[in-house]
Specification:
The complex is a heterodimer. Chain A is an all-beta fold. Helix content of chain A is 0%, strand content 53%. Classes of the chains: A mainly beta, B mainly beta. Chains A and B meet through strand 4, strand 5 and strand 9 of A and strand 5, strand 9 and strand 10 of B.
Chain lengths: 116, 113
């Protein structure tokens, strides 16, 4: 069972369109991160959200953390070909006790292709 | 500029060979991780280490071992490579505290023939 469900798995759109990627779980996360990975490279951190209801913006990218800290979304406005890549959400499950050692739970990823 | 480097970008090995993948980080991070990434399966954690000489199994440790003799270096060892270990291997590091943001290396694409 995947702890973090990402949807959609694939997204193919034209330049200028808007899109939203979702990351959902039945577990509560103490923080949630979004990464972007380009072909042949390692993932690169885009943002971390910590507070329920938090919204962060990075140019044309808007990240939101759900009020209950169980879900998150990434919205891209006016997508460009340079946005093409694999988008991954990942988080630290909120635990009553124990140490996570920073072990992240990853979603399966969304492959985004933006056509010129 | 923070950096995680991996010893090879591409590697081709034969079945049964012992394979060493090395990862070095220059951020003085306590935590280091090894993942493999396969299409449709996402990132799967093989092993991680939270301190020198300390290691913990991840989700898929079978067929792998690790070594962390120095803080900046974390090695992944395939004791006897098999074709089902053909994959992209990613190393990452993160600080002990805070938001645990992970910094990844560029990956090693390993092919076992």
């Amino acid at each position: 069972t995947q702890l973090l469900e990402q949807s959609p798995q694939f997204l193919s759109i034209q330049e200028g369109e808007n899109l939203t990627v979702y990351c959902n779980s039945s577990s509560v996360f103490s923080s949630l991160q979004w990464y972007r990975q380009e072909p042949g490279e390692g993932p690169v951190l885009l943002v971390t959200v910590v507070t329920g209801g938090e919204v962060k913006k990075l140019k044309r990218l808007t990240f939101q953390f759900g009020d209950a800290r169980k879900d998150s979304s990434l919205h891209i406005t006016a997508a460009q070909p340079g946005d093409t890549g694999l988008y991954l959400c990942a988080g630290i499950v909120s635990n009553a006790g124990g140490t996570s050692y920073g072990k992240l739970t990853f979603g399966q990823g969304t492959i985004l292709t933006v056509h010129p | 500029d923070v950096k995680v480097t991996q010893s090879s970008r591409y590697l081709v090995k034969r079945t049964g060979e012992k394979v060493f993948l090395e990862c070095v980080q220059d951020m003085d991070h306590e935590n280091m991780f090894w993942y493999r990434q396969d299409p449709g399966l996402g990132l799967r954690l093989i092993y991680f280490s939270y301190d020198v000489k300390m290691k913990e199994k991840g989700d898929i440790p079978e067929g792998y071992s690790v070594s962390r003799e120095k803080k900046e270096r974390f090695s992944l060892i395939l004791e006897s490579a098999s074709t089902n270990q053909t994959s992209m291997y990613l190393c990452a590091s993160s600080p002990r505290d805070g938001l645990y943001e992970q910094y990844f290396g560029p990956g090693t694409r390993l092919t076992v023939t």
